[in-house]
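Supplementary Methods, section 5.1.

A reviewer requested that the exact input to the structure prediction be made available. We therefore reproduce it here, unchanged from the version used in the analyses.
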Amino acid sequence: MTLSWKARRRWALFALVVALPLYIVVAVTVVSTIERPHFLIELLIYVALGILWAFPLKSIFKGISKPDPDAPHKD
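The structure derived from this sequence is encoded token-by-token as follows.
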């Protein structure tokens, strides 16, 4: 089932405003619970976690900046 353009825009907004800040809090909490690794290893963990969140949401963010394709055309 594919989402409509309007639904994808709403889910993208929800992901950026609600889910991403929660993900950041969880990621920082999880990394802080492990023993303090070397600076470069910690940096790599944060970079990997910073990129990892985008892959499952890629389909939601695709094309939302373009005009609604289902909207009636103005002639």
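The chain has one domain: 5-60. These observations are discussed further in the main text.
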